[in-house]
Amino acid sequence: MSDGDPVSDAQQVRYDQARYVDDGQYEPLLSEKDRTRVEIGDDSPLPDDLTRDELELPALSEPELARHYTRLSQMIYGIDSGPYPLGSCTMKYNPKFTEDVAALPSASVHPDRSAASIQGTLELLSRLQDYLGRIGGMDAVTLQPPAGAAGEFVGIRVAAAYHEHNGEGHRDEVIVPESAHGTNFASAALGGYDVVSLPSDDEGRVDLDALDAALSEHTAALMLTNPNTLGLFERDIEKIADMVHDVGGLLYYDGANLNALLGRARPGDMGFDVMHYNVHKTFATPHGGGGPGAGPVGVVDELAPFLPAPRVRAAEDGARTGDSDSASDSAGAGASEQRYELFDPEHTIGKVHGFQGNWLVLVKAFAYIARLGDEGLADASAKAVLNANYLASRIEFSVPYGPFHHEFVASAGEQDAADVAKRMLDYGVHPPTTKWPEIVPEALMTEPTEVESKDTLDRLAAAFNAVAREDDETLADAPERTTARRIDQTSAARSPRLSWHELADDS
Amino acid sequence: MNGAETRASGSPYAPHTADERDAMLEAVEADSITDLFDIPDAVRFSDEFGIDARTERETRRLVRSILGRNENLTELLGRGHYGYYVPSLVDHLADRSEFLTSYTQYQPEISQGFLQALFEYQSLLVELTGLEIANCSMYDAATALGEAATLADRVRDTSGHRILVPDLLREERRSTLENYVAGTDLIVEAYPTADGAIDVDELADAVDEDVVMLYAENPTVRGTIEERLDAASELATDADALFVLGSDPVALSLLQRPADVGADVVIGDASVLGLPTSYGMGLGLFACREDYLRQVPGRLVGVSEDATDRRAFTLTLQTREQHIRRERATSNICTNQAWVALRTAMHAAALGPNGLVDLAKRDVTRAENLAERLDDLVGVSAPVHDRHHIREFVAHVDQPAPAIAEDLETRGFAVHVVGKHELQCCVAGVPDTELDAFVAAFSEVVR
């Protein structure tokens, strides 16, 4: 890349997304390709009052379906398509080999199998619990929560059970910083808590005076992201932990931003009592268009008896013939000979998923951690922070708060951040998260992750800068090179059409 | 570049050369990467995790070695998680990296393909349930049941606080439900069933004005098919309670349409299509009547138009969701099971309506046949319940059930123990030849 005019630089990588147009419409729905009505009929093995009358769905051949879904996939932008700097989402590259290990036939077991017959599954879960405990500085880990928000909910339920157990069931408030992820508020509310919103100080961190005022004997927990959503490390974290603990509250760590800290700092060492990990962020399992993820929860010893049931552990009477856990994790080693078992923690909150969570995602997360090891994990955070700093230094939008780590929040200034994002699509890059956190006007929350090279970051910066120089009209008309042009959100919400049955002119 | 054969000195997925790193540090005016971390000394981590790096090949070998400890059994297991054969089409197309590696469709213009696939998934569920609204996924059946309860809490007109669930309900589902309603004043109570199905008289006694939600499953966890859903639904309606029905896409292809028996909400595990046996990983099905549109949890894909007036898809009615409504959101869900929903839609499309109906019919006849064959064995009677069954059934064994299950396991077969003298067997996904071998093994065990 030259480093001349950003607009012309960016235009070198202008991009046209696949677009199929058929009879004035984009790629037809399956239901427009075929609809076949099947009567349940006389050959039904059930009496007809126990069955439906008919089922009407598309009946298409395999070649037709292969084309349908291939075309749909071409109308999607993924991490493999280009940079994807969505702040707070940690859109890092998903190593291909993790799909292979999750697809092993031996991974395909039923949750009601006897523990003796699935020692491999239990060993993998146990070893992943151990890895996550070490990475977060936590004493005990559950892998059951199927997503980050589910992990938050577990944390909230564990906190409630802990306070109840100690005769402190009167605690009815959870404190959440104004700039926190929306799930924090919603998870606390789902747990029945009143949410106390905490303003930031002038520098974008927790306002200690406001925190002091918010804390009381009603405080069940403070939920905190560190670094916070501005990418700033909460420098007073030890003080904050003391303040929360002094009133008898618990400190909850939202793991969404853990990719900033691997090998540099651990929530457990900062005084956090309970945390969740987003394995689909930090540990590179694919986001899959919105999920599945997994949101394991780690806790300090004191909270371990309250974790969801069942948990996995090495059986004490096991026929252990190998070395200690750490030795058996050496690179050349394979499975252990340890026996593993399921158990219910003494004061368990019960279940938060019908079975043991998103198993196939956990297999991928385990493989990622085992592949990277200490050095790889620490390097991931190092490069993620370097990339964010480098990208921020190359863009013309101002970044009001710092020093930031793996992500930064720029301001689109006089431009509309949402329009900036739409226009960036035309330059073949995915835009940042927009208009949030609200502490930054017209926020562009940007997290490039460690997987982008210097060249890619230069091209990404060129896209930012090209858009920064464009006029409002161009931005308002964008995007023009994606499959669909700007989509009318108001129309979608005003007259909801949520299935093909609702489409007036469907055939 | 680090290849798959090298152990990483850093992340193998961070492409920086040393020169590039140095140039970048210079650009940001830092002497070292450590200088970029604004972390107080007191909380800096200077120890090691003690996790060795591995080559890609070593890592694959490690996982294969660990999972190799799982015994290779023929699973006659169900009770909410099933192992149907998933066509190769699903794996290969769902694994296209645009599907796998994209995020939630907050930029719809560049995500039309996934949005359309999710819209088609929603449409599939609308067809199967007869209800107008289906969201584009919850985590699993248990959490979808929890979400149905919080919806019931939000939409109720009365001051009631009881949720009624069948006494047969899987303990794990009930426990998850109890966690979801822990923040409300709702309580969960079981109503008695008779011979594996709703006892309408008993249920009528249990239902009063204090009930806000009545939950039933069809089929039940014991594989029986409910015959009095309309009566149950009427009891719920009379009490001004929501009638919530648990099911799944295969069963729904044949059994009574939930809308026809008065269901207000349908939940369940939709990943019976799309996922093989996955140690309980699922896909929460959530569908409801149009009346609850503004109260639906989770994401919804809707139709709109783009600037060229062509039809386009987008996430819609997002003001229900946590990223906008925060503590007043209809749910805390953010990350969902979108990619599993894609797989489910693909699997359903691959089967088509004929394939779906045939699969469900075979689940009825094959379960019946297996029950008959076990019933012929000495000391076994099956099915225990004098009901129609789909997919699975409970068998009574004269000998202690755990001992028989253990013996079967040594012969390569896994079944559920559901009582001191009760085993449960499921035919879904088990080829006929293996059912033959199972019957042979069973006859040896009880001989």
UniProtKB/TrEMBL annotation, chain A:
Q: Can you give the residue ranges of the Glycine dehydrogenase C-terminal domain?
A: 380-474
Query: Quick one: where's region Disordered?
Result: 1-51, 316-337, 471-507
Database matches in Pfam families: Aminotran_5 (PF00266), GcvP2_C (PF21478)
Entries under InterPro entries matching the protein: Aminotrans_V_dom (IPR000192), GDC-P_C (IPR049316), GDC_P (IPR020581), PyrdxlP-dep_Trfase (IPR015424), PyrdxlP-dep_Trfase_major (IPR015421), PyrdxlP-dep_Trfase_small (IPR015422)
Renumbered to this chain, the Basic and acidic residues biased-composition regions fall at 30-40, 478-488
Q: What is its EC number?
A: 1.4.4.2
**Protein's name according to its UniProt entry:** glycine dehydrogenase (aminomethyl-transferring)
Give the organism the record lists: Natrialba taiwanensis DSM 12281
Automatic annotation (TrEMBL), chain B:
Q: Which InterPro entries match?
A: GcvPA, GDC-P_N, PyrdxlP-dep_Trfase, PyrdxlP-dep_Trfase_major, PyrdxlP-dep_Trfase_small
Give the EC number(s) listed in the UniProt record.
Answer: 1.4.4.2
Q: Which residues form the Glycine cleavage system P-protein N-terminal domain?
A: 13-378
Top-tier EC class = oxidoreductase
Q: Where on the tree of life does the source sit, at the highest rank?
A: Archaea
UniProt keywords, alphabetically: Oxidoreductase
Biological process annotations from GO:
nucleoside metabolic process
Signal peptide span: none
The record's GO molecular-function terms, alphabetically, read: glycine dehydrogenase (decarboxylating) activity
What is the protein named?
A: Glycine dehydrogenase subunit 1
Q: What is the organism field in this record?
A: Natrialba taiwanensis DSM 12281
